[in-house]
Write a structure and sequence with these properties.
Number of domains: 1
Strand content: under 5%
Helix content: 55-70%
Order of helices and strands: HHHHH
Radius of gyration: 31 Å
Largest sheet: none
């Protein structure tokens, strides 16, 4: 059950990377402003750069390693959904091919950053200074409130 949950998270990550790229291109053509959001674009670029770097370094995806460890450690047979998601996610190709595809895809995402740039960063606004309390050392005190009793001389 936990292995299937990790598989679903892995699938959502892949969907974010691949689908995000498609949405950036489609959004540029349809003039969708949200595809230029800096947070989305940084997260998207960072995600594919992480995948490409892991692949080029020969490091297995941590989600795949974690899922495999859970499946081996006990009776973690994949559910119906898990089997179908695994068929969509995992392929039996040489590692060098994955590294090449991930690297080319990362370059395509970087090119999309250049062709469809994110919104410019907003200039940092400094908070307005807090008003300073008046310095009472140099001000005279107000006259005491007048009393209703007449003064005697």
């Amino acid at each position: 059950m936990l292995a299937d949950a990790i598989l679903i998270v892995h699938f959502m990550f892949v969907l974010f990377v691949v689908g995000g790229f498609a949405l950036v291109l489609l959004g540029a053509a349809l003039r969708w402003s949200w595809v230029r959001a800096r947070t989305f674009r940084w997260a998207h670029l960072g995600a594919i750069l992480l995948v490409a770097a892991e692949s080029l370094a020969g490091v297995a995806c941590p989600l795949t390693v974690w899922e495999d460890a859970l499946r081996r450690s006990g009776p973690q047979d994949a559910s119906f959904v898990g089997r179908w998601v695994a068929r969509l996610l995992y392929y039996d190709f040489p590692e060098w091919l994955f590294a090449a595809v991930y690297t080319v895809f990362a370059l395509a995402v970087a090119l999309a950053w250049h062709l469809v740039p994110p919104h410019p960063a907003k200039p940092r606004r400094h908070a307005a200074p807090l008003p300073r309390p008046p310095d009472r050392r140099y001000h005279s005190r107000p006259d005491p409130a007048p009393t209703s009793r007449p003064r005697s001389h």
